[in-house]
Specification:
The protein has 125 residues and is mainly alpha-helical. It has five helices and no strands.
Length: 125
């Protein structure tokens, strides 16, 4: 079963191919094998500093038996709603009403439905 290669991996393969073709035409190495970091940086298209940093992260991950951590995708967050003192008091009153008057077990979905109906609450779960 073949492995799915994402766009970043495909770009990397194309960069390696673009680096290797001139070496084949020249019948020799463009960058000597002694300069490993410089060669890896040229092949992958990133700076030598980035290659050094990734190598260092790999060494620390190997010594601590952990995976290499990559930065996660930043997702947009919903704006927080501002609740004034009157709304806080109304919410508190509805909660007390559920327990004292109706004698029901309160759930978040029940409370949200009542608040949207009575005080036109704009929040969500």
């Amino acid at each position: 079963m073949s492995k799915v290669i994402k766009s970043g991996g495909r770009e990397m393969i194309l960069q390696v191919m673009a680096f290797s073709e001139p070496e084949q035409q020249n019948q020799g190495l463009l960058i000597p094998l002694d300069n490993v970091r410089k060669r890896v940086a040229a092949i992958t298209g990133v700076s030598e500093k980035t290659v050094s940093r990734i190598i260092q992260e790999g060494k620390t991950a190997a010594s601590t038996s952990k995976k290499i951590i990559i930065p996660g995708k930043s997702r947009p967050r919903q704006n927080k709603i501002i609740i004034d003192d009157f709304d806080i008091c109304a919410i508190r009153h509805k909660i007390h009403q559920f327990y004292a008057v109706k004698k029901e077990l309160l759930t978040l979905s029940k409370l949200l439905a009542v608040l949207k109906q009575d005080i036109n609450f704009k929040g969500n779960r």
